[in-house]
Amino acid sequence: MKMAMTENNEKRPNDEFDVPWKDILEAYFPEFLAFFLPVAYAGIDWQRGFEFLDKELSRITRESLIGDRRMDKLAKVWRHDGMELWVLIHIEIQGDRKPNFELGMYVYQYRAFDLYQVPVVGLAILADEEAGWRPTEFSYDLWGTKQSYQFTSIKLLDYLETELNQSKSPFAIVTLAHLHAKRTKHRTEDRYQEKRCLIRRLYQNGFSRQQVIDFFRFIDWVLHLPDEADKRLWKEIVDFEESQKMPYISSVERFGILKGRQQEGASMLTGLLQRRFGAVPDWASEKIAEAEPPTLENWSLRIFDAQSLDDVFSDKV
Question: 316 falls in which pLDDT band (50, 70, 90)?
Answer without folding.
Answer: low
